[in-house]
Amino acid sequence: MHGVVSRYCQASVFGALLVIFCCSSVFANEGLHNGWDKLLKKHVVASKEGYDTRVDYAGFIEDKASLQAYLAELAAVTQENYRGWSAHQQLAFLINAYNAHTVALVIEHYADIDSIRDIGGFFSSPWSKKIAPLLGEVRTLDEIEHDMIRSDKGFNEPRIHFAVNCASIGCPALRRQAYRGDVLETQLAEQTRLFLSDPSRNRFAEGKLLVSKIFNWYEDDFEQWRGLSGLRAFLAQYAQALSLNNADANRLRDGEIPITFLDYDWSLNEVR
């Protein structure tokens, strides 16, 4: 009997420690992005309409130490930590890492550029530079977006295209808030709606749907997402944001409304 009680107590203690460990891991993850959240609220400015934002890169330069401290916190996360998080926590982590490292890259070259594409040489791009220590490796922005987020082993989440920010006017807004696992669904839904509501990037005019070049580059990502059958079905979900009535939304789904992809503005999304 004593042995049974002893084994029961050991199991109870182990169980309690496991719960504490798991809870600590979750809380550590959610608190991880507090520094980035403060920087975004301080240095990202929303437009009057609320569709997009501009970035005070000069302000980020003044707060470079705080940005570097946040990037160091991201770099300290291990593969074991990461694997213990929920899928939403993992995705929020990667989106924040992409955006924060993009800002860090821009401020490093800020005095000499008008576009993020000015960074790099003839045979390299800003997205192919090894700049981001993450999960035990130094990674490129392309690796974070395409290998870790979008690959077959990734998240099957096309709305990340409205969350990762390429420091350009044509890009969806850099959110004035860090992404967090516990509210990620709400954040992604809002980012998508805001981007599609912006008539400078997406609009219905003269019988055509004019949309961002993003939908051309990544059209495959919108195939069979949550039971939808492709880009047209995805866009039709946001009929109100695109100023489509119900009849036009149905015509869009049925292929009766042509889709045109707008030119992309690569100018830096800076506060002027």
UniProtKB/TrEMBL annotation:
<feature type="domain" description="DUF547">
    <location>
        <begin position="83"/>
        <end position="196"/>
    </location>
</feature>
<keyword id="KW-0732">Signal</keyword>
<protein>
    <submittedName>
        <fullName>DUF547 domain-containing protein</fullName>
    </submittedName>
</protein>
<dbReference type="Pfam" id="PF04784">
    <property type="entry name" value="DUF547"/>
</dbReference>
<feature type="signal peptide">
    <location>
        <begin position="1"/>
        <end position="28"/>
    </location>
</feature>
<dbReference type="InterPro" id="IPR006869">
    <property type="entry name" value="DUF547"/>
</dbReference>
